[in-house]
Design goal:
2 strands; mainly alpha; about 65% helix; single chain; NPH3/RPT2-like; coiled coil; about 550 residues
Length: about 550
């Protein structure tokens, strides 16, 4: 009975020799890989019982034959050689079989690792996936009518049939496979699609106390495997990962990494994405406002500020880290909608509402209607708010950037502070006055006064990019400097005339001096007359009156 095993297994031969002097009927094999099932296959091989080697048992045969030392040293054409030949000639050339072997290796660790079965299968999977993508790319090359070689647009993740196969292996082995694929140059979109598929398979299962720890490990591993390329995975998937990371209490590093990734592509997010439920114990708010605030900070920090360390405006150069004006506009609309949603929460603190509203740069909002709507909802929900807090809220609104409809509503809104209502009425009056003045002037005539022009062009200026706004300000600054230079020159001329008059008076009181004095006085009178004529125009009087109103309004607001 023992002879076939002893002749082919070096391990059993050693055990028998150690107990030759004693009458033993049983030999104990400790930590046999694969257990009784593996030993049964080895015994069948030793006794000549035929069985088929398949991807489902080849890993077991490799491990048990190595443990039992069933090598060529003890018998020709032994089990270990047979299993290795099957791996090399059949398994490693087929991606599906490699995945099956990896799945069987989950219960054979660490023996399968020590024999490099896992690493060889992973290498084969990564190589096959990369080779298939390269072959697919070459098959889509064709010549155009002009004789140029170009690639036909391919469907998303076409040819990535292996994505479904990888979803069955354990997370630690899956991590090694994806890492190898990245090194082999597999497309980031394919990597992202595989991560999405794997996460959906695992995270949609019923959660219990045992599986919670496993799901936490899956989420943290998938986050670490996310491609660095932007848009490699849908932003909705990133938000779903973030919700799970918060709910499962994943590491802070994982959550911060997700928030940074989401912030870099926040312009394609929707309101539903931002509505992250609050999972923390003791949190009274319905939504996780703190997480959204950090995401907005990450988005805004792409804009490095108006000036860099050398005092040069970043708007004069194309900074790859600065969000475009179109991205800012999209995000501002979503944020205003988000503010309107969280404003309905009676437990939301004023400081957090203001923090979300101020998270974006000042030039992000071209129209303040959405912000006004959110503040109006907050005031209706929190009716016991103090007047000082109302003023803090309303300072967020630039009433020059509200539409006529929103302005009409604000003018009759009893929840707003009186100073805000006065501002609304004043800006509407200026807008109307400017419209009336423009209707009576030709195209080359400038607006009546600078304040009215600023009110009417506020929306246009806000719609411009920060770089264009900066260029406009520089042009205005140059014009002001030129005007100041002209005034200084005229003042110098007057001072020279005054010096000459004093010198002439000291020399002589003759008729010639009186005549010269009269001529100079006439010049001064003419200059004074022209200046008084310009200053007495209705537009300048209205500008002075408007300036006094602004000063009184600003003083009352402060």
């Amino acid at each position: 009975m023992q002879f076939p095993l002893v002749s082919r297994s070096g391990q059993i031969r050693k055990l028998v020799e150690e107990h030759r002097d004693s009458d033993i009927s049983r030999v104990e094999l400790m930590n046999l890989p694969g257990g009784a099932e593996s030993f049964e296959l080895a015994a069948k091989f030793c006794y000549g019982i035929n069985f088929e080697i398949t991807p489902l048992n080849v890993a077991q045969l490799c491990c048990v034959s190595d443990y039992l030392e069933m090598t060529e040293e003890f018998s020709k054409d032994n089990l270990h050689l047979r299993a290795e030949q099957y791996l090399e000639s059949i398994v490693y050339k087929n991606l599906e079989m490699c995945v099956e072997v990896l799945q069987q290796c989950e219960n054979l660790l660490p023996h399968a690792n020590e024999l490099n079965i896992v690493s060889r299968c992973i290498d084969a999977v990564a190589s096959k996936a990369s080779a298939e993508q390269i072959a697919l790319s070459f098959s889509r090359l064709e010549y155009s009518s002009s004789g140029r070689l170009h690639t036909i647009r391919q469907a998303k993740c076409e040819g990535d049939w292996w994505i479904e196969d990888l979803s069955v292996i354990r997370i630690d082995l899956y991590q090694r496979v994806i890492t190898a694929m990245k090194c082999r140059g597999v497309r980031p979109e394919s990597i992202g699609a595989s991560l999405v598929n794997y996460a959906q398979k695992v995270l949609t299962k019923k959660v219990d106390l045992v599986s919670t720890g496993h799901q936490k490990l899956v989420v943290e591993t998938i986050i670490s495997l996310l491609p660095v390329e932007r848009l490699a995975v849908p932003i909705s998937f990133l938000f779903e990962l973030l919700r799970n990371a918060v709910m499962l209490d994943c590491t802070i590093a994982c959550r911060l990494d997700l928030e940074r990734r989401i912030g870099s592509q926040l312009d394609i997010a929707t309101l539903d994405d931002l509505l992250i439920p609050s999972f923390r114990h003791g949190c009274e708010t319905l939504f996780d406002v703190d997480t959204v605030y950090r995401i907005l900070v990450n988005f805004s920090q792409q804009d490095d500020g108006e000036y860099d360390m050398d005092g040069v405006s970043i708007f004069e150069s194309d900074s790859p880290h600065s969000p475009s004006q179109s991205a800012l506009l999209k995000v501002s609309k979503v944020v205003d909608d988000y503010l309107a949603e969280i404003a309905l929460d009676v437990n939301l603190k004023l400081s957090k509402f203001i923090a979300i509203a101020e998270a974006l740069p000042a030039h992000a909002r071209t129209i303040h209607d959405g912000l006004y709507r959110a503040i109006d909802i907050y005031l209706k929900t929190h009716k016991g708010i103090l007047d000082a807090d109302k003023k803090r809220l309303c300072k967020l609104i630039d009433f020059q950037k509200v539409s006529q409809e929103a302005g009409a509503h604000a003018a009759l809104n009893e929840l707003l502070p009186l100073q805000s209502v006065v501002q609304v009425l004043y800006f509407e009056q200026l807008r109307l006055r400017n419209a009336l003045c423009c209707s009576h002037t030709d195209g080359n005539h400038k607006p009546v006064h600078h304040q009215s022009w600023r009110i009417s062009s506020g929306a246009l200026s806000a719609a411009m990019s920060p770089r264009d706004n900066y260029a406009s300000l520089r042009r205005e600054n140059r014009e002001l400097k030129l005007e100041l230079t002209r005034l200084r020159m005229r003042l110098n001329d007057l001072e020279k005339e005054h010096v000459c008059m004093k010198r002439d008076m000291a020399k002589s009181h003759s008729h010639k001096f009186m005549s010269s004095f009269s001529n100079k006085i006439a010049k001064l009178r003419f200059f004074r007359h022209s200046s008084s004529r310009g200053s007495s125009s209705p537009s300048r009087q209205s500008y002075r009156a408007d300036s006094k109103v602004i000063e009184r309004t600003c003083a009352s607001i402060e």
